[in-house]
Amino acid sequence: MRRVATAALLLGISLAPQASQAVAQGEGGRYYPETGHSLGASFIEFYDSLGGTEILGYPISEPFVDPLSGWLIQYTENARMELVPSRQEGESRPRLSSLGEALGGWEPPLEAPGGIFGSSANCRFYSESHHNVCYAFLDFYESHGGPAAFGYPISEFTLEAGRIVQYFQAFRFDWHPEDPGGGRVRLARLGRAHFERLGYDLELLRPRRPDDLSAFVVTELRLNASLMVPVAPSAGSQTVFLAARDQTLGPVARAAVMLVAHFPNGDRTLVMPLTDDRGVSRLTLTYEGVPPGSTVDLEFWVVYGELQAVTRDSFRIWW
């Protein structure tokens, strides 16, 4: 990483920090650069009231009309919001879809409190669904809104793919004891799983840039390296290419690029040109006296603002 910082200094560039944040987007919507989607204006207040990104995760689609129900819906990482017409109130109101139930999390209700864990001060039995919530799951559940946010429990603790989980009407809690940061209870990414289960067009998940490009923030560097030829002679040249894309797969211009070429007789470090408007940097590397049969490994280090990334490629010396 010290090499990357040196490359930026050598190029004499000043790149603004790429702070990650949601920004206003058209028609009262709110754009999230983390996933390249805008939260629909009809869902913003509801989304915020449930805890925003901490509970629902980032939006992973734009709002769209569900062909099955005719309702406006929008998927987030952990949930699905839907705008449901209300006959009594004469207007549509947002609510969460019951993804926990839709994805098969329901278990037969218990006849009485306790179940396999027995009665405990660390458990609470919900008579509305006849299931318990216990220990860390109970602490998280009650401190983040309880039934109003997650719906009622529809299963007990269970093992799924080797992990302890519990299903609620709209969510699934996952237990991550390996997390040293204290975030041991996490919400499962049910949004995409349900989206794919219903067979919607995957194009709806494609990240987008905001209408106001001045508000766009690059939050991720996606790199791709390529070579002019896969094999080369022991003395000659090789042209290398580095393409930098953002989280929406759009080009990242003016990113600093450094190449570290690992030859059998030693390493060479070269500063490549800044990426152009297509997000591409190109360099011709000359060399001589490399033994046939050798492999030249290449590392491409890229810096853009506070973002840093690396990708690798290689070519063979054949004759």
Discrete helix count: 7
Q: Report the mean per-residue pLDDT as an integer.
A: 88
Total strand segments: 21
Secondary structural class: alpha+beta
Rg estimate, integer Å? 26 Å
Kindly provide the name of the CATH class of the largest domain: Mainly Beta
**Strand order of the biggest β-sheet:** 15-21-20-17-18
Number of domains: 3
Oligomer: single chain
Taking the alpha carbons of the first and last residues, their distance comes to 34 Å
CATH topology of the largest domain: Immunoglobulin-like
How does the overall form come out from the CA principal axes? elongated
The fraction of residues in strands falls at 35-45%
User: For the report, how would you describe the main beta sheet?
Assistant: 5 strands, mixed
Find the CATH superfamily of the largest domain: Macroglobulin (MG2) domain
Unreliable segments of 5+ consecutive residues: 1-20
* CATH architectural name of the largest domain: Sandwich
Q: Helix coverage percent of residues?
A: 10-25%
**SSE series:** HEEEHHEEEEHEEHHEEEEHEEEEEEEE
Quick structural overview:
This protein has 3 domains: 2-13 and 218-317, Macroglobulin (MG2) domain (Immunoglobulin-like, Sandwich); 23-99 and 199-205, no CATH class; 102-186, no CATH class. It has 7 helices and 21 strands.
